[in-house]
Design a protein that fits this description.
With 350 residues, this protein is α/β, with parallel strands linked by helices. The protein has 7 helices and 29 strands. The protein has a 7-stranded mixed beta sheet, sandwiched between helices.
Length: 350
């Protein structure tokens, strides 16, 4: 089976981190995030992954390489301009890289949903496209998919539903099995949205949805990126990460004996945490420095960020690559610090 993974978005909600690194190449706990997706696909019979890239394709290739040992091979296709969520699939097909049936996935999902069951359902119904559907607790904040519960035929979509309209809890999980014939619905050479321009035209003409239980998380916001990290550490999502409990501290990170690292924390290679500092519910990407007595809570520190002695960061702060927070500064809740910015006074939320 082949899979096209859409990784060409700008990742605006994860700025400033995505100003210096594409979202799929960002580390999540112990590996580049996208590696979790490739591993998941490999477990469900995918032998070849095509990464549909736009922005910073070379960074992604540098992070992931051309194959995963024992897993799928990986190709990278670069778009001349952003082609949306359907256009890249047509572009990949035009290059002769796709067979009769393949998977298409959004490239910002951490999941263990059963893609084997999805492929089986697709084959049984003879669908043109089968959407993976995932039940959510609060359906009011999502676009919902209505389906006939007996046949699995998709009946329609509900965008931003009013409370009285909600009669399902199922959303599209951003993973589809697609027949080659669906490509005829994708015009060549312009941005096309699969959700707005392709799916609606297939309602009643071969669009199916299969509900899959398990774990699913779009990691595209700082809050969800952090939650996904804890879910890997705690084994809430099935991965091959050895979740024996506690924080993830890379072998190449240095932590002073008197520092406190709470169980929900990730310290990537080259991070240093000084005496008496405290790290809670936070991720320190490569090469961060946290000075003595500093406190970091509920935040993400980009690569090589420096937090001065006795400074406090968070909750909800995101510090860009190479930014510096001076000693004793208190960054307020939700602060965003740009790459290489130097903060010498208090910052308010944005
Ligand atoms: P935000 O800017 O924070 O909304 O994130 P995003 O850029 O990832 O956008 P969104 O979450 O809506 O995109 C869903 C998926 O489609 C992501 O995996 C994106 O990488 C991908 N995607 C969005 N637009 C394009 C595009 O023009 N080309 C390609 N190849 N992928 C895209």
């Amino acid at each position: 089976m082949q899979a096209v993974v859409l990784v060409g978005g700008k990742g605006t909600r994860l700025r400033p981190l995505t100003l210096t690194q594409p979202k799929p190449a960002m580390a999540l706990v112990d590996r580049p995030f996208i590696r979790y997706m490739v591993d998941w696909l490999g477990h469900h019979g995918v032998g070849e992954v095509v990464m549909a890239c736009g922005f910073r394709a070379e960074d992604l290739r540098a992070a992931l390489g051309d194959e995963v040992p024992g897993g799928p091979s990986i190709r990278y296709i670069e778009e001349p301009e952003p082609l949306g969520t359907a256009g890249p699939v047509r572009l990949v097909a035009e290059q002769g890289l796709l067979g009769e049936r393949f998977l298409v996935l959004n490239g910002d999902v951490l999941s263990d949903l059963d893609l084997t069951a999805l492929q089986r359902a697709h084959a049984e119904t003879g669908a043109v496209i089968t959407l993976a559907l995932y039940p959510v607790e609060d359906p009011s904040s999502y676009g919902l998919v209505r389906r006939d519960r007996t046949s699995d035929r998709v009946l329609g979509f509900l965008e931003k539903p009013e409370p009285g309209q909600i009669d399902t809890d199922e959303i599209s999980a951003g993973a589809y099995v697609v027949e080659r014939s669906a490509l005829d619905l994708i015009p060549l050479g312009r941005a096309v949205s699969i959700e707005r321009e392709v799916f609606p035209r297939l309602v009643g003409h071969g669009l199916y949805g299969r509900r899959l239980d398990g774990y699913w998380m779009d990691i595209g916001t700082p809050e969800r990126y952090l939650q996904a990290s804890w879910d890997i550490l705690e084994g809430t999502v099935r991965t091959d990460f050895d979740h024996t409990g506690g924080p993830y501290v890379d072998d190449d990170a240095e932590v002073a004996a008197t520092a406190t690292i709470e169980p929900r924390a990730v310290l990537r290679a080259g991070s240093r945490v000084g005496a008496g500092a405290a790290i809670a519910e936070s991720v320190l990407l490569e090469g961060c420095r946290v000075g003595a007595g500093a406190r970091v809570r509920g935040s993400i520190l980009g690569p090589r960020a420096e937090i001065g002695e006795r400074a406090t960061v968070g909750p909800g702060a995101v510090v860009g690559r190479g930014a510096r927070i001076a000693p004793r500064v208190a960054l307020s809740e939700g602060a965003r610090v740009q790459p290489d910015e130097v903060i010498e006074g208090e910052v308010t939320a944005v």
